[in-house]
Amino acid sequence: MKWEPQRFDDEPNTPPKPKAPHGPSLPFFPPPKTDYLAIIARVLNIIVNILIIIFILMLMSGIQVFEQSLEKKEVNEISWAADKQFKVDPNKNPKKLKDFLGYQDIKNELQKYVEAVNPNNPINPNLPRGILLHGPPGTGKTHLAKCLAGSVYQHAPFFITTGSDFVEKYVGVGASRVRSLFNTAKITAQNKGQKYFFIFIDEIDAVGQKRLNDENKNQEQTNTLTALLAEIDGFVSSDQTPQAILIAATNRMDMLDNALVREGRLGNHILLDLPDLESTKKLLQETIVVPQGNTLDFDTIAKVIHGVHFSPAKIMALANETKEVAKKNNTQNITAEYIYEAMERVLMGQEKTSNRNEEEIKRVAIHELGHAILAKTLGFDVHRVTTKARGKAGGYTIFFPHTDTKLPIKIDLIKQIIIALGGRAAEEIFYNKDDISLGCGNDLEKADNIATQMVVNYGMSLKDDMKGLSPLKNTIDDEAKNKINDIITESYKIAKKILEKYKNNEDSKSKWQELQNTLTDLSKGTLNQNNFENIPAEQIKIENNNITVN
C-alpha cells in the first residue's frame, strides 16, 4: 500500500483553496423598517368608511321611523281629540239646562245657544263665541256645561276636556292637541252639515295663566296658550264653515292671561256664585228625599243653609249625610234636626267621642256663650251652640246675619270683629287675664283679618281718613298697623262691656247660668235658636274715633 501525505486547510503558510463562483456579485441593501403609522392610518381609514356607511344606513332608517312616528302621533292626537266628544248613554236621558237647579238668569243667558244651533234658525253673527264660567269651587260650573251639552248635542258636536290635558312634558304636545281638538270638532260638524261646534275646557287656568316676562321659564305653556289664542282668532264667519263656540271654566279668573279673557275671545263672563236663598231652597227640595207623609219647613232650613254659605256641591254632600244620620237613628223619616246634624258634619267633620274633663267643657261653654250672646245682642241669628268636639274645634257657634246682604257696611264688619273676640272676652271675665286658653287663637286671627281688609283694601277705620289704604300693593305701613290695632282694641272693649253688663244683670245672670248648664251637660251639650229668645239687643256706633254702645 502506497502511503500519501495528508494536508490540512488550517495548516500555516497554506494558501486557501479557491471556491467555485455562484453567480454575479450584487450590492447589499439592509431590510426596510416597518411603518406602523401608515398601517394605523390605513386601518382607521377603513373603519371611518365603514362607520360612514353604517351612519348613512341608520339615517335612512331613522328618517323612515321618524316619518312613521309623525304619522302615528298625528293619528294619536286625532284619536285623543275624538275621544273628547260628548256622548250620550242610550239607556239614559242626558241632563239639560232645565235640569240645572237654580241660577235662572244664567240659564236664560245660555238658552240662546240652544236656540242658535237649531237647524231652522240662521247663523247669529252677534252670538258671543267665547264664554268664561267663573266663581268659587263647588258652584256647578262643570255640571252646567254638561247640561248645555245635553241640550245641544243633537244639533252640534260638543267636546269636553280639561286644561291639564294640554300640559305634557314633551315639547309641542300642548299646541298640537289644541289644533287637533279644534280641527276634529270642525270636521265632525262639517260631516254632519251642522252650523256650530262647542269646545268646553274645564280648569282652563292650567293652560291659560298669565304669561311671565321671562317666557323661557315656561315656554311650553306659552306655546300652548298662543296656539289656543290663534284658534280662537281663527273663527271664520261663513255660512259654509261651522262656527266654534269655546266655553271655559275656572275658579281663579284673576290668574288668567288678559289676552285670553278680553272681548272677542272669552269675553262673555258668567259668574256662578254661591246660590241665593231661593236657589238654596230648590236645591234642598230636589236633593233631600223626604218620605211621603214627612213634611219639612224648607223655608227655615234654606235660611240656615244659606246663612252658612253652602255651595251646590256642599248641599249634595248634605243630602248624603242626612241619609246617614237617619240610618244611624234607624228610621227613614227626615227631620230638620237630622239635616242640621248633617250640616255640622259637612262643616266641621265627625263628632269626637274622646273623653274630656269637666273643667275643659266648662271653659268651652263659657267661650262659646261669649260668641253667642254677642251675636244675638248685635242682631245676628244664633242657630247652634255646642260643646261637642268636631274636627279641630272643641266647640263652635253657628250664627249669621238676620238679613242677608251682599254689601256689608263698616258697622257690620265691626260687629263681626266684636263677636269674634267674644270668646276671649268671656274667658277673661269668668277667669282672669292670665288664664286665657289657646282656643282664642283662631278668633284673634279672624278679627285681625277682617280689620286688615277694612283698612288696607276698603279704606275703613275708626277715623274719617283713608290713610293706610293700599289695595293694589297689599302692603301694611305703620299708619295702617295703628288703625288695625285701634279697631281690634276698641272692639274688644265693647265685647267685654256687653258681656260684663249681661253677667252682672240679675235677670240675664240666671239666663247665662241656665245656658251654661245645658252646654256642660254631656247628654245635651247643644243649644239652638229657641234658647236665645228674649235676649236684649245692643246698639253700637262709631263716635270720635271710638266705638260706643248704648
TrEMBL record:
<dbReference type="GO" id="GO:0005524">
    <property type="term" value="F:ATP binding"/>
</dbReference>
<keyword id="KW-0812">Transmembrane</keyword>
<keyword id="KW-1133">Transmembrane helix</keyword>
<dbReference type="InterPro" id="IPR000642">
    <property type="entry name" value="Peptidase_M41"/>
</dbReference>
<dbReference type="InterPro" id="IPR037219">
    <property type="entry name" value="Peptidase_M41-like"/>
</dbReference>
<dbReference type="InterPro" id="IPR003593">
    <property type="entry name" value="AAA+_ATPase"/>
</dbReference>
<dbReference type="Pfam" id="PF01434">
    <property type="entry name" value="Peptidase_M41"/>
</dbReference>
<keyword id="KW-0378">Hydrolase</keyword>
<dbReference type="GO" id="GO:0016887">
    <property type="term" value="F:ATP hydrolysis activity"/>
</dbReference>
<feature type="region of interest" description="Disordered">
    <location>
        <begin position="1"/>
        <end position="26"/>
    </location>
</feature>
<dbReference type="InterPro" id="IPR003959">
    <property type="entry name" value="ATPase_AAA_core"/>
</dbReference>
<feature type="transmembrane region" description="Helical">
    <location>
        <begin position="36"/>
        <end position="63"/>
    </location>
</feature>
<keyword id="KW-0645">Protease</keyword>
<protein>
    <submittedName>
        <fullName>ATP-dependent Zn protease</fullName>
    </submittedName>
</protein>
<keyword id="KW-0472">Membrane</keyword>
<dbReference type="GO" id="GO:0004176">
    <property type="term" value="F:ATP-dependent peptidase activity"/>
</dbReference>
<dbReference type="GO" id="GO:0004222">
    <property type="term" value="F:metalloendopeptidase activity"/>
</dbReference>
<feature type="domain" description="AAA+ ATPase">
    <location>
        <begin position="127"/>
        <end position="276"/>
    </location>
</feature>
<dbReference type="GO" id="GO:0006508">
    <property type="term" value="P:proteolysis"/>
</dbReference>
<dbReference type="Pfam" id="PF00004">
    <property type="entry name" value="AAA"/>
</dbReference>
<dbReference type="InterPro" id="IPR027417">
    <property type="entry name" value="P-loop_NTPase"/>
</dbReference>
<feature type="compositionally biased region" description="Basic and acidic residues">
    <location>
        <begin position="1"/>
        <end position="10"/>
    </location>
</feature>
